């Protein structure tokens, strides 16, 4: 059994968690849009920039979850 045959198993195991992460990334996208609009309207609000950075991390979450689960499968 080679490395090519067992990696899809990690993908399938991680899929439900990636779906949850996908919903979190959608929330992150909304927060990112709101944070960007608020930081453009009021540049003195530095917290909006931090909020936008947090939202970008949420948007990248599904990819990170799938990669983590894929790499956990020993081959």
TrEMBL record:
Question: Which keywords does this Swiss-Prot/TrEMBL entry list?
Answer: Membrane, Transmembrane, Transmembrane helix
Note the InterPro entries from the entry: TAXIMIN_1/2
Lineage, top-rank taxon, reads Eukaryota
Residue ranges annotated as transmembrane are: 9-30, 36-59
Q: What's the protein name? A: Uncharacterized protein
